[in-house]
Structure to design on (224 residues):
């Protein structure tokens, strides 16, 4: 099984900040990596797929990069609605697996 | 626009069988896989398994011995059964569509399932 490890587990930031979340796969997954945003009581929402492709309707302040084992999600200028938990997920192999999550909180 | 709506029993006793169904509304071609994912309270996401319209399935090995995912193409529904549940199976269960370029692009609203005697 492929293990996905995110860092940090939690992050405090202010509106307008640029933040980066990292996701590392235990083996190469090419670019079969997606990022999700989840708010309390809601289903996750896909932001990025194929490591760097922005899902339709997602603001352009979100971007993704990386390949093989190392990936990043960047929010260029945090907005109040961006404070949430973020997950990475690999679609390279079965079982599909998620990172443990990064909780982004207001400083 | 495709939407997923799910339903099923929210309270079970240990050893019972969890049963959830997810309906697909809107136009969605037949080439997709459809997944079940769960999230214990306060914890992360766990993929349970997936199925396509032909009934081909893949399961998480950690749950494979207890899980059955099935599809009813005439009703545009797919279902999850998890037998011999314990308190560790308490979670919000989501159905989702596997996007054709990776990731889960459409999600159901989630169903909280509690296992308690």
């Amino acid at each position: 099984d492929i293990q996905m490890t995110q860092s940090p587990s939690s992050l405090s930031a202010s509106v307008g900040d640029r933040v980066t979340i990292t996701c590392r796969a235990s083996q190469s997954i090419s670019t079969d990596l997606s990022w999700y945003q989840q708010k309390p009581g809601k289903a996750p929402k896909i932001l990025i797929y194929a490591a760097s492709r922005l899902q339709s309707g997602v603001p352009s302040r979100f971007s993704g990069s990386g390949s093989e084992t190392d990936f990043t999600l960047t929010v260029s200028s945090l907005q109040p609605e961006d404070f949430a938990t973020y997950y990475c997920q690999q679609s390279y192999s079965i079982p599909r697996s998620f990172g443990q999550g990064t909780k982004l909180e207001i400083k | 626009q495709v939407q997923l709506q799910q339903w099923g029993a929210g309270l079970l006793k240990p050893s019972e069988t969890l049963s959830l169904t997810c309906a697909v509304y809107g136009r969605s071609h037949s080439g997709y896989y459809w997944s079940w994912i769960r999230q214990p309270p306060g914890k992360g996401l766990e993929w349970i398994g997936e199925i396509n319209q032909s009934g081909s399935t893949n399961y998480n090995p950690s749950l494979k011995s207890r899980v059955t995912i099935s599809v009813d193409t005439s009703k545009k529904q797919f279902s999850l059964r998890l037998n011999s549940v314990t308190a560790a199976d308490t979670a919000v269960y989501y159905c989702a569509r596997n996007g054709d370029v990776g990731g889960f692009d459409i999600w159901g609203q989630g169903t909280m399932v509690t296992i308690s005697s």
